[in-house]
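Table S2 (text version). Query chain:
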Amino acid sequence: MERAADLFAARGIAATSLEEVLAAAGAGKGQFYHYFRSRDELAAAAVGHRCAQVVAGLAQALGGVSSLAGLEQALAGFVAGFEETGMAGCPIGTLATEVAGRNEEARLQAAAGFDAWERLLAGALERMRQRGELRTDAAPAVLATGLLASIEGGMVLSQARKDMASLRIAVEAGLGQVRAYLS
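Corresponding C-alpha cell output:
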C-alpha cells in the first residue's frame, strides 16, 4: 500500500496501473487479491494512508500552537514547504479531487483527512481563545473552516499560476479573519 500511495501521489490514481503498483511493491496479483478485493479498495486504502501521513505532519506543526504568533509561524512553515515541493498541490486536495466522483470510499478517506486538519486548526484557535487571545465570541470551528478553505484555494491558484503569491495572499486573508477576533 505504501508504494501505491507514493505512486498515486506522484502520478495520480487514474494514471497509475495496477501492474505498476505491483511492480513497485514487488508483489504479484495473488498477493494483491489476498489483501484487496479491487483496485478501488487499494486506492481508498492508499488515500487513507497518505492522508494519515499528512495529518501526522500537520499535528506536529499545529498540535502545540496556542497563540497567533505560533499559528503564523506554523502556516509560514507550511507555505515554505509547499514552495519547496515545487507547488505540486495539496497532498489531500489533489487526491480528493481525483476520487470525488469515482470512488466513494477514497472520497471518504480524503474528507476524513480534511476533517482532521480542520480539527487541528480549530484546536489551535480554541487554545488561543482559552488563553484570552481570541474573544469569547470567536467560533474556532468556523474560523478553522475558513482558514482551511483559504489555504486550499490558495494552493490551487498557486499551482495553476506557478506563483506562490496566491497562497501567501490566501493565508493572509484567512489569518485576517482570525485577527478580526483578537481580544
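Notes on Table S2: The chain has nine helices and no strands. The mean pLDDT is 91.
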